[in-house]
Amino acid sequence: MILDTLPNAQRYYALHPLFQQLFDYVRSHDLATVPAGRITLDGDKLFINVNDSQLIPAEEQKLEVHRRYIDVHFPLSCDERVGWMPLEHLGQSDEPFNEASDYAVYSCPAETYFTMRPGQFCIVWPEDAHAPVIGEGKIRKLVAKVHI
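^ that's the sequence the OP posted. Answer follows.
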């Protein structure tokens, strides 16, 4: 997992051929005011989900993992706590991995928690189990999906 600020995004362009397109788009558009929903940048290879979500307590949030996509999270409206745990520390998922939606969840608590602030982002690889949208109140955030 990588946690950094938008001014440093160019450091990560070499990690995936679509990262530059993603970060250039996020920096050049006012995404705080667009309608919630999907913004398609390159079909199913690169898209952004604009979410208006209710933050929830850490003890209620489950860890999630993906296999086909890298997630890049961008909080826009407020701070967001995120739980993290390496994939190899997880036990059995709540249900078998859902290949169609590229998703599995785990009820165990995260090992580490951190706070993201507007202007920051985190890159979450398939080996990173993550529990986003932790806190109180509502948040507007972006979750970019970058196909591996």
